Amino acid sequence: MVATTITNVFERVYTVMKMSLMFWVLTLMGGVVLGVGPAFLVLMDLYHEHGWEYRGYAWRNLVSLFKTHFKRGNALFYTVLFPQILLGYNVYLATQVKHPLFFVLDFILIAMFIFLSIAYIYALVLNAAFEIDFYNLIKLSVISVFVNFFKIFRILMLMMCVLALTYRYKGLILFGSIGIYIALMHWSLNGWIHEVDEKIEIL
Q: Which positions, given as ranges, span the membrane (predicted)?
């Protein structure tokens, strides 16, 4: 019993490290700018398929996986990133004006920024779980955010925990944070995926 528990812990730690390193390798394959999106998509797909089975994360398959996920990964990533850049710039401009109305505007803009981040996470998980075209993926991701606000709160708390942990232990940026992030986001939406799957079967 104890030996099995220890083995499981070591396997999960190793899987997290492997996922994190794979993320950075995939990111570099795309020259960073065109690598981040496919990297997130590939890792979420791998985790959805293999979970904590570290043998399923094969280095030899990275190039083919990168090519397969290149277009959609970048399309999805920049569909979210570009609006977030605009929102971030507008938040900066709004903070320069000292007026009560602009505090309200700041709140709205920040809420929209968070909304896009959550929708992106939904899109990653939904893409891993279902064969769905890009337009419907975006639409379903946006709709899903409004279905359960408790899930939004849970995702935000988990994201903040990962950020705080990374800030405290900088080495996790290379060897842990991404793997932990992927695993936690998938876990937080696993129930929602089952709900969607059941509704599809009924239809």
A: 21-44, 75-94, 101-123, 143-165, 172-189
Nearest alpha carbon to residue 89 among 106, 76, 114: 106
Contact 127, 140 (CB under 8 A): no
Which residue stretches of 51-61 are H helix? none
- Of 159, 160, 118, 165, the closest CA to residue 142 belongs to 118
Burial (CB count within 10 angstroms: exposed 0-12, middle 13-18, buried 19+), residue 203: exposed
Residues near 8 by beta carbon (within 8 Å), at least 6 away in sequence: 52
Query: Cα(36)–Cα(73) distance, rounded to whole angstroms?
Result: 8
Radius of gyration of the chain (CA): 18
d(CA 55, CA 58): 7
Do 166 and 173 contact (CB within 8 A), yes or no?
yes
User: Could you report the per-residue pLDDT of 155-190, keeping only the tens digit for each?
Assistant: 999 999 999 999 999 888 888 999 999 999 999 998
d(CA 184, CA 191): 13
- The amino acid sitting at 48 is H
* CB 39 within 8 Å of CB 73: yes
The single-letter DSSP state of residue 60 is G
